[in-house]
Amino acid sequence: MNRPQPIEKMIEVIKKFPGVGHKMAERLSYYILKMSNSDVDRFLDSIRKARQIMKSCSTCYNLSEHDPCQICSDSTRDHDVICVVETPQDLIAVSKVKEYRGLYFVLGGALSPLDAIGPAEIKIDNLIKRLKNDSITEVIIATDADSNGEVTAIYIAEIIKKLNIKVTRLGYGLPVGGDIEYADEVTISRAIAGRKEM
Q1: Does residue 64 sit within a domain?
Q2: CA 95/CA 84 separation, integer angstroms
Q3: C-alpha dihedral over 82, 88, 90, 92, to 10 degrees?
Q4: What is the pLDDT of residue 187?
């Protein structure tokens, strides 16, 4: 028996979420249909409000309610060191590590030649401008330990070295092929402590 068209449409929309396959999209669709009207209204309202309120920090490109964000405007942080990450989720993961008190820069992705994502599609130019304008002494590259993250790290490191800024990469406490946002605090802490100059 075919599903009603409205449910099929819900499944197709939910399948677009990262990491959600057909079966999970189907389960979520039926779960949403069982939710009370007030729960659905709260769910939709939270999405609308987040999309209205959240903005990209003009300094580090993290998602924030304020511009500049709370991290960039914190005078107690080490303003000589920047940790470069791919996504705001990666920033959150690294920020849980108490050993790191520097600043951040969110690239908005990683280089991926197969997907036609080159330097112009992520914020590498903005990063270089920031490094030229600020008094940064070290850049920690914390891109994912997969092939796209490695290509991105090498590409950025080559550019930054020409600016006479120390470039380090997280140590390999992180699993190769793994995403930083899924790593625990101890693993990230060891990776920061074991970072190596590039």
Answers
A1: no
A2: 12
A3: 90
A4: 72
For the chain, the domain total comes to: 2
Can you give the pLDDT at residue 138? 95
Say yes or no: 94 and 49 in one domain: no
CA torsion, points 137, 193, 68, 48, in degrees to nearest 10? Answer: 150
pLDDT value at residue 172: 64
- Side chain identity at 141, as an amino acid letter? I
End-to-end CA distance of the chain: 58
In this structure, the strands spanning 63-64 and 81-85 are unpaired
Question: Using alpha carbons only, what angle is made at residue 136 by residues 133 and 139, rounded to the nearest 5 degrees?
Answer: 120
Asked if 48 and 84 sit in the same domain, the reply is no
Residues in the chain where the model's pLDDT stays below 70:
1, 172-177, 186, 190, 196, 198
Residue 136: half-sphere exposure toward Cβ, Cα within 13 Å: 27
pLDDT of amino acid 1: 59
- pLDDT in the model for residue 25: 96
CA distances from 55 to 65, 69, 83, 141, 145 (A): 6, 9, 20, 24, 28
State how far the Cα of 194 lies from the Cα of 158, in Å rounded to an integer. 20
Do both 94 and 186 map to the same domain? yes
Domain range enclosing 86: 72-197
pTM above 0.85, yes or no: no
Give pLDDT, residue 198: 67
